[in-house]
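Input sequence (782 aa), recorded before submission:
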Amino acid sequence: MNQVEVKGTPVSVKKLVKWLWVAFFSFIGLSAVLFCFIAWGWIGYMPDVEELENPKYKFASEVLSADGKTLGTWSLNKENRVYVGYKDISPYLVKALIATEDVRFEDHSGIDIRALARAVIKRGLFFQKNAGGGSTLTQQLSKQLYSPGAGNILERLFQKPIEWVIAVKLERYYTKDEILTMYFNKYDFGNNAVGIKTASYTYFAKEPADLTIEEAATLVGMCQNSSMYNPVRRREQTEQRRNVVLDQMRKAGFISEEERDSLMDIPLKLNFHRVDHKEGLATYFREYLRIMMTAKKPNRSDYASWQYQKFYEDSLSWEQNPLYGWCNKNKKKDGTNYNIYTDGLKIYTTIDSRMQQYAEEAVDEHLGHFLQPLFFKEKKGRSTAPYTNQLTKEQVKEIMMRSMRQSERYNTMKQAGYSESEILKAFKTPEQMSVFTWKGVKDTVMTPLDSIRYYKYFLRTGFMSMDPMTGAVKAYVGGPNYAFFQYDMALTGRRQVGSTIKPFLYALAMENGFTPCDVTRNVEQTLITGAGVPWSPKNASRARYGEMVTLKWGLANSNNWISAYLMSRLNASSLVRLIHRFGVRNRNIVASPALCLGPCDISVGEMVSAYTAFVNNGLRCDPMLVTRIEDSEGNVIAKFHPQMEEVISAQSAAKMLVMLKAVINEGTGGRVRRYTRADVGGKTGTTQRNSDGWFIGFTPSLVSGCWVGGEDRDIHFDTMVYGQGASMALPVWGIFMKKVFADKSLGYSESEAFNLGNQSICGNDSTLVGNDTGGLDSIFSE
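Predicted structure, token format:
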């Protein structure tokens, strides 16, 4: 009888074979039981059918411009994932992924037996590291969806069978295209680029459908390990990995050998854009919109005692603006509120990305390259800089100490228990920091206290442009740079408006029977306030002193005496009420004679909205920021429409239009003609000591406004040459409009003229017919 010796014990071949079969079938049986227990959820975690059919993704919401460009996203931490459908994924991506990760993807049902056996034999028995993995794309997807990070190898081994079962179930519920789509949407490509749409933009500034073969190969190569193959930090390794993917595509027959060789010779080129809410286009707009959409219903107890104005505005917005608090006003099918950070919404805004770019360029060109250098030059060597020389060194020191105590650093140290002397010492200790300059971020060494003073040197701005017929906001700039100056001066901040308030006064006069042709003598005026105190405004010019002048001339030249004259014939309380009807929500406006010179605080957005009434036959448009919202499946869940209110009559609006055109053609807004010959109306404004420079200008199709000033009111030019609104704010408007008119794709034309209709301007003997604006201007010439 044949015998064989095993471990020193003679065993018959027949008995050995028997035990081997027993062991084999036992293994099969135990495996079957194990997989059944896993499938039934008795061992490990097994998602139920509903969760398998609807995996729990957290998709970032996408903010889109009116012309279809992505302005930015809102997400939680690293879940900056924007959904993209299979049809919008480049076929190069699909081929590269299949060739590299799962060449038999189309043939298996979740588990590739051949690949698994190869991995077990070569890796498990022969310890070959280059044997390739046995995981299919579906298994990798199940790992991404449902496997937490393993703490050790043993824990990872227990996860594998669970992933196999989930992979088989995923193949049952989804098509191959859907599995690929989920994979591309789920994978984290590093640098806060989660999902293929965000990754395509981050690394190549493209949509996934527009990627070239070598770009697709680069991103697919990163799927092995996005940290190791990070093209920003490890370009050489990433390029080598890209070439491996290209070779795999050649092996799979997706590209030829010649194509592979030529593509390998192309150097890796990135167009890197880190996804950051502080960067990109319309940063101030996006932040304002985010705060608005996520606002909660105002509760007075949540506001400080001095925040009544804020509570009042928020309460009005909650009741009147459907976009304000939208997330907390609307619910999903499951009864929960919408979440802009995880629900993958698409918010279609009214912003035009081209016009937004032109607005930001206009601010950069005028403030950064012209006005700011002049401001630095004026303040150079002054002990009170950047403040006016009308302050003392002691006053400036007091302001700086107050600013220090309002800083985040101070509050953090105070809460940590540091004494005042320790905090002051820290603020006076030099340290390395990166600071803003108009030429880019600069690394330097300065004390934190000096950095506070440094940033106060920079002039701030607010700019907004909107369609007067629909209220659609086309461009929105809240400051010089959101990363460094986060206070929004477009719709959040308010400053004194100066002479830009005068059109409201003149509109009240037109509503009370006055006409642009009415005359009065151009002399000093003295009015008595409600407290019985005489008030006599000063005038910047004595031109035509003592002569009879028209109201049209008075507004065109921003004459304070003519404004005071009108104020003496009208009621200050009536002016306050009209200002509120124009859309201004500041409840602290004082009804006094001085109101005609604009001492009250109003935002740029409110002023731009108010001026739409002069273009739109007396109808004022609220700013409209969003046109519609879609859910992650493309269903329209909200639509927004223009909100209008009649402020003044069409006849009064026509009269105001004539006078505001004269501001440009004959008065203080003449610098507009350096930029355009279009039919334009508008008004300049400058407050006391040049603290604020304003210009609101409009064409038949666009109303835009700009404010420029310092962070504090005592930071300003000390001379009128550059401190007036025509010098500080008007050029931003002019540069913007010049760029808009030059871009023919936008559809705005310099030849477009105002249509005043058949409105009586100066009585029955002076009626404008049709578009004959030229004849009307000649009637009113002085």
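Checked by second reader. The CA atoms of residues 2 and 751 lie 108 Å apart.
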